[in-house]
Amino acid sequence: MAFTEDFDLFLDTDDFGVEATFGSNTINVIMDKEYIENENIIGFTPVATCKTSDVETLDIEDSIVIESVTYYVVHKEQDGVGMTRVILHT
User: What is the pTM of this model?
Assistant: First the structure.
């Protein structure tokens, strides 16, 4: 039996989710700033967590607007069960 989960519950804008737009698409994401440490660089980077099916057409360097801020995609990391972390920069 295959594992299925309703990720819309996690992304609901009444709880933790916020709207994001890219191209003609509007999706819900969970926006976060994750701590990074890479050699001598320490800081925070914006990360949007979303359904993998929502961002299949989103590519590296594409723009995405979240909470009135335009971000650009640096990297996408799929978790293998239907969610993707989109690493962003302004």
Answer: 0.87
